[in-house]
Structure formats: structure tokens, C-alpha cells
Amino acid sequence: MVRFGLVLTVLLAISVPAFAQRARRPSEPAGYRTAIQSGMRAAVQQDFSTALTSFRQAAGLHPESAEPHFFIAEVMRMQNELEDALGELRTAVRLAQATGRDADAWHARALFATAATLQMLGRFDEAREAWVAYNTFADGHPQVSYSSSGRAHLQALDRRTEVARVAAGVRERIEQRAREAAEEASRPRRTR
């Protein structure tokens, strides 16, 4: 999990300059971009409490935006608060769907992170459904997503499921042989 958090921190660090230079869009309320930037700086410095406060402030300023919810979820994932992160990711997906084309990139990111988070939680059936949803979205939005990445995750998950199925069969046979050996050992032996 530490490695995962480190990777997310590096990704946030790389993206901070791009966000810092981005001008406020006319649809963004005053203070929104500043709150996002403040949250990103805090997340990079691993000041997660400040990061969450800033991203929540941004969400309050621009309640129809998926972006702050995605970042709240990422900070929660860095802290291994995966169930809470799922709630924020689902909010981000819902808001991105309602916003339309302007939010396609956030939609893709939130779908991807949802699937990855479900997989991290060991909820493999739900993760598989989430990867399928990501791939469906990615197929129709290649400019903001990578269907090959989603398909690779889906294939890995399917391989894991197959290995688990085979391993369960092997365990069952081993347990059966152990029971048979115990029965054999408990039978009285004939002496000549």
C-alpha cells in the first residue's frame, strides 16, 4: 500500500504545475481552482488532513464537479480508507456522467480508480464488473482513456479467478485424501 501511495503522490506532484498554470474556467466559481491547487500541494507533502479539507472546500464551491471528489478519493486511497474512497469515486462517476463531455476525463479516471479499488478490497466480482464498465467507456472515449489498460486488468483478474478455481479443486482433493488417510489409520489392523 505504501508503494501505491508513493506512486499516487508522484503522479500528483507531476500534475501540480499543470494545474497551477491552468486558468480558472468561466464555469468555475472563484476560489475553486485555488482550493484544488492547495489540496494537491498538501497531498504531495502527505498532509492528508489539509488535502481533504481543501478538496472538500472545492467540492462545496463547485458541487457539480467530479474533480474534487476524485481527488478526495485518491487521498483516501493513500490512507488505505478504501471503502470511503469508493463512495467518493461513485460520486465522481455520477457527477461526470451528469456533466457530459467536459467531464469525460474525470469520468474515465473515476471508473478506473473504482475498479482498481474494488480489486484492492478483494471484491473481485464487483471489480470485474467495474473493469467492464471502464472498458465500455474507454472504447467510446479513446481521447481520455486507454481501453488496452482496462483490458489488461480484466485479463489479469480473469486469470486470477481461474487460478483460484483450480486451486480450490486441488485443495478439495488434498482434503479428501487426508480424510481417507485418517480413516485408514483409524481402522484396526489385522494381525497374522
Distance between the termini: 64 Å
Shape: elongated
- Report the top-level CATH class: Mainly Alpha
SSE order, as H and E? Answer: HHHHHHHH
Average pLDDT reading:
86
- Sheet bearing the most strands, described? none
CATH architecture: Alpha Horseshoe
Would you tell me which CATH topology applies?
Serine Threonine Protein Phosphatase 5, Tetratricopeptide repeat
The total domain count is 1
Radius of gyration: 23 Å
State the helicity in percent bands: over 70%
Query: DSSP strand (E) fraction?
Result: under 5%
CATH level-four homologous superfamily name = Tetratricopeptide repeat domain
Compact summary:
The chain has 192 residues and is mainly alpha-helical.
Give an overview of the whole structure.
The chain is mainly α. The protein has one domain (2-186): Serine Threonine Protein Phosphatase 5, Tetratricopeptide repeat. The chain is built from eight helices and no strands. α3 runs antiparallel to α4 (67-78).
